[in-house]
Design brief:
The protein is an alpha+beta fold and 617 residues long. 24% of the residues lie in helices and 28% in strands. Helix 1 packs parallel to helix 9.
Length: 617
């Protein structure tokens, strides 16, 4: 092939640029109209989405651990799950913990910068890596085969003339950047993939310095150098990427020298440097297909999976720290992606096989901290045929990202996803009122919730909707309060309240615009919250111990107690019906050695908590 023909073909099919040691493929026919429209949306809402792909099927049960189901989990996979005492606890979440290898991510959760969506999957899930990946990247049903990505479809729908005339003065930057081994189906349009690809993050130095890797000093080497140089010079986005990267410096000192962290370090500099690219996809370098060697025998914190989770935790924490130091954190949100979870039951080879539903992790300053959904319910004695149940269709997450983060309208999101999917409360950005709102509180008044809100100005506002939810996600309108002249203070009594209530205010303006407030949680302190369990005495004599529970405000109903060793082995369980009792003495009737034990107590009315008990000789 002649040099001139090669360069021409390179421009048309996707120019390749070296970034340091990284091969960068930039499609001059950026195939996805979705990404162009996404870029236009980004220009107005100024937000960035970063997707971290965990290839191979991440074991969600060993990453986000259901400690309220610990006995069943330890029975199903005794060689894999870490001891209960080592699992990292989460603020205001007594049912769920994180693997000990993820302290950085746990800290972000406790700072309200992580949202965990539980049980993400789809109906009739596929257990093939390739097919399951295609399903989730295309946004299809399990029986539907699509050749376009969920992002690609949107841009093509809204911009049928694309890619003619790009880049241009309105959008001079790539519409999406992929750092990893290959371009994903996510970015695929009907003609060609839209992504700008960097296969190795360390190669960034080459495009910055306008150099190439060293070639042999012979005719072949000189030809290779010429080809590389022509590719770099024909790349339409090389200059904007170089300028953005050089306009910023890395500020965080927390990045480990690892591939995933280095990818995110590049992304942070490009965002801070002013690149208007709205979507980045990075790839974890390790495989999460842990059929064997998931852990090291006898050591729950060593092995392929703990090492991969540690890399993920450190990289996310460093990236978030860098964004905050750069003061661009409020416009960036990240999420993990894996094609499926793993089986509940271990497979006998220190590993787990392909499963179904798994948690998805969102992170960022503007995510709503906490958890959506509940920890998965596990059978007492799981078999190889038992799987984690789906709680949310994965396209609900996509719809939430499109509408609540990337400023895309609900009808366009429905068209993109080929159906209508409800959104989830993942982001803080979808619950912030305009500046007119000064305060919003909810208090009990004679066992009736009283809502009070104040606005700085009523100009343009027609009425307020008061919305209620029992779970913090699905809201219904319980009343409308119309603006009363220049009155800036409003209130409402909700006489049909439950034990746990969530409220928000929606302001409706005359021009049709709607804004949603933060959510206020109001709990009846007479239900569950006033209950307290104290184990006294503690320590307890070993051998055949008697555990004495002192109860405060216990309701009538069934009490459950599970006793675990420090390594998570269930050694005793007990249940009884309480009837106006303040003290319960439980004779374990089992010879137990001295040591640290965990007592999990569940009471009627909502009390659930783990207590440490020390058995002494």
């Amino acid at each position: 092939m002649k040099r001139k023909e090669f360069v021409k073909l390179s421009v048309l099919s996707g120019a390749a640029t070296m970034l340091g040691k990284s091969m960068v493929h930039a499609s001059n026919l950026l195939d996805s109209p979705f990404l162009q429209q996404l870029a236009q949306s980004f220009n107005s809402c100024n937000r960035v989405l970063v997707i971290i792909q965990l290839t191979g099927g991440n074991d969600g049960l060993n990453c986000i651990i259901p400690i309220d189901q610990y006995g069943s989990l330890a029975t199903a996979r005794p060689a894999i799950v870490p001891p209960l005492s080592q699992i990292l606890t989460l603020n205001n979440n007594i049912t769920t913990g994180m693997h000990p290898s993820m302290p950085e991510l746990r800290n972000l959760y406790n700072e309200n910068k992580v949202n965990i969506v539980q049980g993400v999957s789809y109906s009739n899930p596929n257990f093939s890596h390739f097919r399951a990946t295609d399903i989730m990247q295309s946004g299809s049903d399990s029986t539907q085969v699509l050749t376009t990505g969920w992002m690609g479809r949107y841009l093509q729908l809204d911009n049928p003339g694309f890619p003619d005339g790009y880049p241009n003065s309105n959008m001079p930057d790539p519409l999406a950047i992929q750092i990893g081994s290959s371009l994903p189906l996510t970015l695929q349009g009907t003609a060609i993939n839209t992504g700008y690809n960097v296969s190795d993050p360390q190669s960034l130095i080459n495009i910055i310095n306008e150099t190439t890797d060293v070639s042999p000093n012979n005719d072949y080497g000189r030809e290779l150098s010429f080809i590389r140089l022509m590719k770099d010079q024909s790349n339409a986005y090389a200059t904007t990427i170089r300028d953005a990267y050089n306009a910023a410096v890395t500020l965080s000192t927390q990045y480990p020298d690892e591939d995933l962290a280095n990818q995110l370090k590049i992304v942070a500099r490009l965002i801070k440097g002013g690149l208007r690219t709205p979507v980045y996809i990075v790839n974890h370098p390790d495989s999460f297909d842990t059929h064997d060697g998931q852990v090291v025998s006898g050591n729950f914190n060593q092995g392929r999976h703990p090492i991969a989770m540690a890399k993920l935790s450190k990289a996310i924490a460093a990236f978030q720290n860098d964004l905050e130091l750069m003061q661009v954190d409020e416009k960036v949100c990240g999420m993990t992606f894996s094609e499926f979870g793993r089986n509940i039951k271990g497979n006998g080879s220190l590993g787990t096989d392909h499963g179904t539903a798994a948690p998805v992790i969102f992170f960022g300053t503007k995510v709503r901290g906490g958890m959506v959904g509940t920890s998965p319910l596990l059978p007492a004695n799981a078999t190889a045929d038992d799987h984690v149940a789906m709680q949310y269709d994965y396209r609900q997450l996509y719809s939430s990202v499109l509408q609540k983060w990337l400023c895309i309208s609900a009808p366009d999101a429905d068209t993109t996803l080929l159906d209508s999917y409800s959104t989830l409360s993942i982001f803080d950005t979808d619950i912030v009122l305009p500046v007119q709102l000064v305060s919003f509180t909810a208090v009990w008044q004679n066992d009736v919730p009283k809502l009070n809100w104040q606005v700085a100005s009523t100009m343009g506002i027609h009425f307020f909707e008061v919305q209620w939810s029992g779970n913090g996600q699905d809201f219904t309108t319980i009343n409308r309060v119309f603006v009363d002249g220049e009155n800036k203070q409003y209130q409402l009594l909700h006489t049909a309240a439950a034990a746990i209530n969530y409220y928000r205010i929606v302001s409706n303006e005359y021009n049709g615009e709607r804004s949603i407030s933060k959510v206020v949680r109001l709990t009846n302190t007479n239900v569950g919250q006033g209950q307290v369990v104290v184990i006294n005495p503690n320590p307890v004599k070993a051998g055949n111990p008697v555990i004495k529970l002192n109860l405060l405000d216990a309701e009538n109903g069934e009490m459950l107690l599970h006793l675990y060793t420090d390594t998570g082995v269930l050694v005793y369980q007990f249940s009884r019906v309480l009837q106006l009792e303040n003290t319960v003495a439980i004779a374990v009737n089992k010879s137990l050695p001295a040591g640290v034990y965990m007592v999990w107590v569940s009471l009627p009315g909502g009390y659930k908590k783990a207590h440490k008990v020390l058995l002494v000789p």
